[in-house]
Amino acid sequence: MRKTDSMLNSQLEILAQGHAYLESVTKEDYSQIVAPNFISSAGSHMRHIIDHYQSLMTGFGINNIDYDSRLRGSNIESNPCEAIKKIAEIASWIEQLSTDDFNKPLLLSSEVSIKSKNVQTVTTSLARELIFVGSHAVHHYAMISQITFAQKASFDQNFGLAPSTATFLREKSQQSQLKSLQS
Asked: Of 17, 38, 167, 174, which sits 20 to 30 A from 73 (CA to CA)?
């Protein structure tokens, strides 16, 4: 398998995790803010994830990515079915990408100051930005996982687990099994 195929598959796996969560959550739990521990709902986090992927899709088309341009407050925050549709659109876009797309130079514009508007623009690539949005999604899945835990709902223990953490846990489990066999 080529590296690009592996990267695309990893993105599809990340999106599949989100899809599985969305299929399992009630509309009420999805939009509930569990105060005082959290200031946003699982739906807000999912909308934020989707916004980043959509910014990447749009930016790829015009050669300028702007993650600051998002659809805050959209119905994706309150309706898991709408989020499922958007995740399907994103997955379809990812499936259409080619090896040549990965190294295409792109511009990335982002605000960098909280005290005043200061937008910086740097050169990046689609491959680098896919790594970012995937990692960003996993980070927010971890937040959603904590919200779900606070709601006392059952959930997949692997949801929101970083790939490197999953590898660490697998290796730790294998080492533990070997030690018990040797005892």
From this structure: 17
- Contact (Cβ atoms closer than 8 angstroms) between residue 121 and residue 108: yes
Give the count of alpha carbons within 13 A of 123, CB side only: 3
Residue 120's DSSP bridge partners are 110
Structure tokens at 42: 């699982």
- Domains, the chain, in order of start with CATH, read 3-182 (1.20.120.450)
Tell me the C-alpha distance between 120 and 131, whole Å: 20
Spatial separation of the C-alpha atoms in residues 86 and 2, rounded to whole Å: 27
Pairing verdict, β 64-66 and 105-111: parallel
Reading the block at residue 12, the tokens are 């599809």
Q: Please, what is the Cα angle at 168 between 164 and 171, to 5 degrees? A: 135
Q: Residue 1: pLDDT above 50?
A: no
- State the pLDDT confidence band at 167, using cuts at 50, 70 and 90: confident
pTM: 0.85
Q: Where are the beta strands (DSSP E) in 26-172?
A: 64-66, 105-111, 119-125
